[in-house]
Automatic annotation (TrEMBL):
Tree of life domain: Bacteria
Catalyzed chemical reaction(s): L-glutamate 5-semialdehyde + NAD(+) + H2O = L-glutamate + NADH + 2 H(+)
Domain Aldehyde dehydrogenase span(s) in chain numbering: 56-522
Species annotation: Parabacteroides acidifaciens
Alphabetized UniProt keyword annotations: NAD, Oxidoreductase, Proline metabolism
BP-aspect Gene Ontology terms: L-proline catabolic process to L-glutamate
Residue intervals passing through the bilayer: none
Protein name, UniProt field: L-glutamate gamma-semialdehyde dehydrogenase
Keyword flag rRNA-binding: no
Length: 543
């Protein structure tokens, strides 16, 4: 028996490769891209460790070249969803009772495989399947994904070490059990790291998962599933079931064994699943733990004391990196009249230099949005602005989906602070600017706070420290991740645990210990070392 009391040292973040011209990593990645783009995978379901092909299939295409098929994938029906639930519950006892250090070793092995053996393959899969440039792919998967895994082992050691005080004669303990059931993980297309973490954070704490990956991220997600298996994750701990969300959700939420729901995606989808869970509350063994990160309408707020170039750089990076398809992407900005012309000129100069196109051309900063539905939705907002007397297109405004789903980085200026594109989430390379009177800084802060139902990320740019402090307090609940003199994107695991509230989710801070605690079902144990032998207490005396 291994009876060591083990704690992991605090890791460091995985170093980000730059893929600079002439570098060995650039050569290796380009070679892998060429290889992978020539292949067409057949992607099955993986249930209880077994590959299952249903014959009900769909295609995985490159968003930047949607005639190029990367894979055919099989879809789960109701029968397969129930099989996945059964496989998860079969694995539950052995996995949840395995010493936690043994579970941690699996996590660390996955991280090491992705850092070394599969680094370029995973990066290439994300680039081709989700249309990310090499830097955006690198910071997502492998780097953030590896950080999630390594830091989860460190944070788990802290959680398990947090034990109650024991008085003389009593021994108190806290057992952090797994949930009594399976976790349903519904994962997004935009971050492969999140797709991994929504399964592996609960698994670190002894849970089992039924995983519905995003249809537009199946290629990289299947590769992850294969690496999980190679790292020794036991059969049934994570079950991979692509398919139609409504079909899978119906079976999952009706299961008596649903123990938790781990989600990143749209607010509307989260609300729908929460309602379905609510309608079935009387059916469950325990109240399911619900953890979700949803939408955002993230702001960049500028004080007159801010340097214009800093602001312009934050707009271009914060709004347009990965085509604005980050939950944290800047999509509305409040800029004082005194700075607007200078900021606009800087933004315009940058956008003149930016290239858009295929991910395999490393000179392209912008690539394609994820699919046709997204393209059409984004263009509907742009066209609405074109036709409105309250707005004008300052930069961009065009799209083309003939070869890939390309939308130009677009800057809208509006005179209406409650204009549609200032309020509603678009999830594309579009930012709307509201220019305010310099004298109305405080008033406009209050306007920013009440404009959107979301509360995910936001930033303040200023040199005036009193102005920063005012924004910090006025916007206290407007953002779960608040940035001072920086763009509102780019949270790093263990440095800026991520999440927001309001319509942006449950704010359980992925990348930190708070999220891991949510996947535990604590049992407190009290042991009396010498039990009392008399019922009486001192107050019963006659005097």
């Amino acid at each position: 028996m291994d009876n060591a009391i083990f704690s992991f040292p605090k890791p460091i973040n995985e170093p980000v490769k730059a893929y600079a011209p002439g570098s060995s990593e650039k050569s290796s990645l380009k070679k892998t891209l060429t290889q992978l783009s020539s292949e067409e995978w057949d992607i099955p379901l993986v249930i209880g460790g077994k590959e299952i092909r249903t014959g009900n299939t769909g295609k995985v295409v490159m968003p930047h070249d949607h005639h190029h098929v990367l894979a055919t994938y099989h879809k789960a029906g109701e029968k397969e969803v129930q099989m996945a639930i059964d496989a998860a519950m079969k694995a539950h006892k052995d996995w949840s009772e395995l010493p936690w250090v043994e579970r941690a070793s699996v996590m660390l092995r996955v991280a090491e495989l992705l850092s070394t053996k599969y680094r370029y393959l995973l990066n290439a899969s994300v680039m081709l399947g989700q249309s990310k440039n090499p830097f955006q792919a690198e910071i997502d998967a492998p780097c953030e994904l590896i950080d999630f895994l390594r830091f989860s082992t460190f944070y788990a050691s802290q959680v398990y070490a947090d034990q109650p005080y024991s008085e003389t004669g009593i021994l108190n303990r806290m057992e952090y059990r797994a949930l009594e059931g399976f976790v349903f993980s519904l994962t997004p297309f935009n971050f492969t790291s999140i797709a991994s973490n929504l399964n592996m954070a609960p698994a670190m704490m002894g849970n089992v998962a039924v995983w519905k990956p995003s249809t537009t991220a199946i290629h990289s997600n299947y590769l992850l599933m294969k690496v999980f298996q190679e790292a020794g994750l036991p059969d049934g701990v994570v079950n991979f079931i692509p398919g139609q969300g409504s079909v899978i959700g119906k079976v999952v939420t009706a299961s008596r064994d649903l123990g938790g729901f781990h989600f990143t995606g749209s607010t509307s989808t989260f609300n729908t699943l929460w309602r379905q869970i609510g309608e079935n509350l009387g059916n469950y063994k325990s109240y399911p733990k619900i953890v979700g990160e949803t939408g955002g309408k993230n702001f960049i707020f500028v004080h007159p004391s801010a340097p214009a170039l800093d602001v312009a750089t934050a707009i271009v990076r914060g709004a347009f990196e990965y085509q604005g398809q980050k939950c944290s992407a800047g999509s509305r900005a409040y800029i004082p009249a005194s700075l607007w012309k200078e900021v606009k000129d800087y933004v315009g100069d940058m956008l003149k230099e930016i290239k858009m196109g295929d991910v395999q051309d490393f000179t392209n900063f912008i690539n394609a949005v994820i699919d046709e539905a997204s393209f059409d939705n984004i263009m509907s907002y742009i066209n609405y602005a074109k036709q409105s007397p309250d707005a004008e297109i300052v930069f961009g405004g065009n799209g083309d989906k003939s070869v890939g789903y390309f939308v130009e980085p677009t800057v809208i200026q509006t005179t209406d602070p409650m204009f549609k594109s200032m309020v509603e989430e678009i999830f594309g390379p579009v930012i709307t600017i509201y220019v305010y009177d310099d004298a109305k800084y405080e008033e406009t802060l209050e306007l920013c706070d009440r404009t959107s139902p979301y509360g995910l990320t936001g930033s303040i740019f200023a040199r005036d420290r009193y102005a920063i402090d005012m924004a910090f307090n006025k916007l206290r609940y407007a953002a779960g991740n608040f940035y001072i003199n920086d763009k509102p994107t780019g949270a790093v695991i263990a440095q800026q645990p991520f999440g927001g509230s309001r319509a942006s989710g449950t704010n359980d801070k992925a990348g930190g210990p708070l999220n891991l605690i949510r996947w535990t079902n604590a049992r407190c144990i009290k042991e009396a070392l010498v039990p009392p032998t008399s019922y009486g207490y001192p107050f019963l005396g006659e005097k």
